[in-house]
Write a structure and sequence with these properties.
The protein is α/β, with parallel strands linked by helices and 663 residues long. Helix content is 42%, strand content 18%. The protein has a seven-stranded parallel sheet with strand order 8-9-7-10-11-6-12, with helices on both faces. Helix 3 runs parallel beside helix 4, helix 13 runs antiparallel to helix 14 and helix 16 crosses helix 17. The longest helix is centred in the N-terminal third of the chain and has 29 residues.
Length: 663
């Protein structure tokens, strides 16, 4: 399903290479309601986006003609303008507030950072520097750090926490699960052991008396860093002098908790961390609202997780567990039903004699669960049979095999997080996503699992997030009011409108704070030149690769982009054929004409006409000197010239020839 900006929702039925008036081009074949069909030239690709709705359902096809599509667009545009007003209001509020400006790095801070046992990746280093710069600025920080599972987001948070505590301000760290609270507590204590910084944690692993004591210490200023689950958002948790709030996996918290956080955000510096990245289109719209750092480089030595998707077989499970056991590593076996988890563990013990299995799930008593997890962490067991409580952030470097039973019942982002529990060291890791039978697999579950087996490379989180959007829809990202418009227009087009609305509102407020004051990019130049320009089927036989090439040609905004694509094509598919060479040359000409301010270039007989072209007297004079045969008509803002027949038919490079005169 695709969305055409002017005609609405259609079914993309493939490419067709057609010859119209002796000119051969590629067209996108779109099917609309009834028997309506449209062939769209590929130079209009910018107007077409893949349909991603608010839910996972397919939308009704639009009817050609009539006003319904335009009405829906107008309604969505109004909603986007309202939302952009809210976003900018929040942003302006943040800009107006003054927070605490932390001092520059102390000697202790530098010493603490040098003690980090790994080499920071370039992205991680940049995120750290930006966070510290934000903290040293007088306005409250609100930075989102997106990074794949195990890419070192915690280290960024640790350094910020040290900077805050070192300046005598308190830090509150909020995490979604008890196990993660315990893990972060362990990491912080280990890294800060040589410094006079007091760290406490609040979770159900601690007794009521211990929790009370930790909260009291925080209120009196004796505790510098408090780590906990949503329990720390309770009314009785009060800091004496809060300077920094760190939120891990922010998307896991509910609406009420987010509202409480929003109140806090206006007063103190905030770092939010997320491994379920925000799609780029949404990121652009939020760019004015929050500062975003993306950590995309994997840590040195990290290897992708080998992922197997298939039906459950006892022999396969036995081999996977025994292989991990023989190389001295640990494994996770995920069975997400508490009532039958002990029975499953017994079945596995019988299957793999000599392997030590332990069970962990969220309904165990606090002390028991903590003891099991600590025992497993220390290597006291080989396989942890558990529910999805391992989903978030838990870090066990020796665990390098993961087996998920009934994997078809999990969401895509959730499966991705779970897979991130293995492969956190230099060892090759394996993930087996198993289901009962292919016959019982729903179409949506099959799509989710195939997405995970497609995206196994490191840092695939962004692609996974976009795929998740396609399967589940974008409703949950934007809230209920917006999801109706997303359902009607598709995610991409609605986000484009929101983006335009934010820019428009910024211009009206006279505050192009985004450094984005150029407004939206102009429409592509319309170039009516009679040359064959298409991707020959015998050069690139795959439909998907063909779409990709056309999208990249149409999306190129610099001549250098076209050159890079040409080199890549030659490398992948061999010498570039003439028809494709023409397609690239036309885009080069389009870019140059666009830079000169033109919108339309056409041939009438043997005359080339370019409009609109605005030249002052100095440039008009220069044009006459360089191209005496060119005729410039200031009243019509048009430049025209005769192009000899033989030359224009020879190749489109010549049709771009006049562009060199308006540098």
């Amino acid at each position: 399903m695709v969305v055409h900006e002017d005609h609405g929702v259609a079914r993309f039925a493939g490419f067709e290479t057609r010859t119209v008036a002796d000119v051969t081009r590629d067209y996108l074949y779109l099917e609309y309601q009834g028997d309506d069909r449209v062939f769209v030239p590929t130079d209009q690709l910018a107007k077409i986006s893949r349909y991603v709705g608010a839910g996972g359902d397919s939308p009704p096809l639009s009817k050609l003609g009539g006003t319904r599509w335009e009405t829906m667009k107008a309604r969505a545009r109004r909603a986007a303008q309202e939302l952009s007003g809210e976003l900018l209001g929040l942003y302006a509020e943040r800009r107006r507030r003054t927070g605490h400006a932390f001092p520059e790095d102390s000697d202790w801070q530098r010493e603490f950072e040098e003690a980090f046992q790994f080499t920071e990746t370039p992205d991680q280093r940049e995120a750290i520097e930006l966070v510290k710069a934000d903290m040293e600025a007088p306005r409250p920080m609100d930075r989102l750090i997106c990074g794949d599972v195990g890419y070192g987001k915690t280290e960024v948070a640790l350094r910020a926490a040290f900077k805050a505590a070192n300046d005598g301000r308190q830090v509150l760290m909020l995490v979604p699960t008890t196990i993660l609270a315990m893990q972060h507590y362990g990491t912080f204590v280990e890294r800060l052991t040589d410094y006079p910084i007091t760290i406490e944690h609040v979770s159900r692993f601690r007794t009521a008396a211990e929790q009370k004591q930790a909260i009291k210490g925080f209120a009196e200023g004796r505790t510098d860093i408090l780590i906990g689950t949503h329990r720390v958002l309770s009314r009785d948790v009060r800091a004496k002098d809060l300077g920094l709030l760190i939120i891990d996996e922010e998307q896991r918290f509910g609406v009420k908790q987010k509202e409480l956080l929003r109140q806090l955000k206006l007063r103190v510096d905030v770092i939010s961390m997320s491994a379920t990245p925000i799609p780029r289109t949404l990121q652009m719209s939020l760019a004015g609202l929050r500062d975003i750092s993306v950590i995309e480089t994997p840590p040195e030595g990290r290897r992708p997780v080998k992922t197997y998707v298939g039906e459950y077989e006892e022999e396969l499970v036995r081999r996977a567990i025994m292989r991990e056991h023989e190389r001295g590593g640990q494994a996770f076996f995920l069975h997400n039903r508490v009532e039958s988890i002990d029975e499953t563990a017994e079945r596995l013990r019988a299957l793999c004699p000599g392997v030590r299995f332990v069970v962990a799930h969220g309904q165990m008593a606090e002390g028991e669960l903590e003891a099991v997890m600590l025992d497993y962490l220390r290597g006291g067991a080989d396989v942890l049979v558990c529910t999805s409580i391992i989903e978030s952030g838990i870090d066990i470097p020796d665990a390098n095999t993961l087996i998920v039973e009934h994997s078809d019942t999990f969401g895509l982002a959730q499966l991705y997080q779970i897979r991130g529990r293995v492969g956190r060291s230099r060892e090759r890791a394996y993930a087996y996503l198993l289901y009962d039978s292919a016959r019982a697999l729903s179409e949506e579950a099959a799509q989710r699992l195939s997405a995970l087996s497609d995206y196994t490379e490191l840092g695939a989180g962004f692609k996974i997030a976009m795929r998740d959007l396609e399967i589940r829809g974008a409703g949950n990202l934007l809230g209920d009011e917006q999801s109706g418009h997303v359902a009607a227009l598709g995610f991409e087009l609605y986000m484009q409108m929101l983006d335009e609305a934010v820019r428009e509102a910024e211009r009206e407020a006279g505050s192009a704070q985004n450094g984005d004051g150029d407004g939206e990019p102009p429409d592509p130049v319309r170039l009516d030149v009679n040359v064959d320009a298409y991707v020959p089927a015998d050069y690139i036989p795959y439909e998907q690769a063909k779409i990709d090439v056309h999208r990249r040609v149409a999306g190129a905004v610099e001549v250098a982009d076209v050159e890079r694509l040409r080199e890549e094509l030659e490398d992948r598919f061999g010498p570039v054929p003439e028809a494709l060479e023409n397609l690239l040359a036309l885009q080069r000409a389009r870019i140059k004409f666009g830079q000169a301010g033109a919108r339309t270039v056409s041939f009438h007989g043997d005359r080339l006409a370019v409009v609109p072209i605005q030249l002052d007297s100095r440039r008009a004079k220069r044009l006459r000197e360089e191209l005496p045969e060119a005729l410039y008509e200031a009243g019509r803002a048009q430049m025209s010239m005769r192009v000899p027949k033989t030359e224009s038919n020879a190749s489109p490079q010549s049709s771009g020839r006049p562009t060199c005169c308006w540098r």
